[in-house]
Amino acid sequence: MSIIRRGNEITLSGDVPDPAAKRALLDAVITSTEDLTVIDRLRVAPGATAPDFSVSAPVFEAAAVIGDFTVRMTGDTVTLAGTAAKAPEAAAVADAAEDAWPRAEILNELVVSSPATR
């Protein structure tokens, strides 16, 4: 599964186990920021595994300032990527992901664009 943000557009793709998981992810993304276009390419596939999206809104809220934010989910691994303007922005996203998905392995590949703020 992947969640890719480019500016004000977020594309969701991959398999979710049921309609409730799909709705929870859509709600978390849609409520994260204003003026956002969401492209829903999620598929409901019974038996698919996905983290609990009902608690993921803080991840997307923290990442709202990162215009190239991505999340990739494979099994129990969640990979965060993108370019934050400041180190505290990247840290806030990583902290929110760890809080939202405590059983997942969080790989933080976020980078900071300004060396002065590291």
Provide a descriptive summary of the structure in words.
- It is a single chain.
- By secondary structure, the protein is of the alpha/beta class.
- It is 27% helix and 36% strand.
- The chain contains three helices and six strands.
- Strands 3-2-1-4-5-6 form a six-stranded mixed sheet, with helices on one face.
- Strand 5, helix 3 and strand 6 form a beta-alpha-beta unit.
- The longest helix has 14 residues.
- The radius of gyration is 14 Å and the shape is globular.
- The relative contact order is 0.18.
- The mean pLDDT is 92.
Pick out its properties.
alpha/beta, 36% strand, six-stranded mixed beta sheet, 118 residues, 3 helices, 27% helix, globular, 6 strands
Topology:
Layout: E1 2-6, E2 9-16, H1 19-30, E3 37-44, H2 57-62, E4 70-74, E5 77-84, H3 87-100, E6 105-112
Parallel strand pairs: 2-3, 5-6
Antiparallel strand pairs: 1-2, 1-4, 4-5
- Overall mean pLDDT: 92
Strand content: 35-45%
- Spatial ordering of strands, largest sheet: 3-2-1-4-5-6
> Terminal Cα separation, in Å?
30 Å
Rg on CA atoms, Å: 14 Å
The number of helical segments is 3
Low-confidence stretches at least 5 residues in length (pLDDT < 50)? none
Could you state the order of secondary-structure elements as H and E? EEHEHEEHE
Percentage of residues in helical conformation = 25-40%
**Overall strand count:** 6
The coarse silhouette is: globular
Could you describe the largest sheet, including whether it forms a barrel?
A: 6 strands, mixed
- Structural class of the helices, strands and pairings? alpha/beta
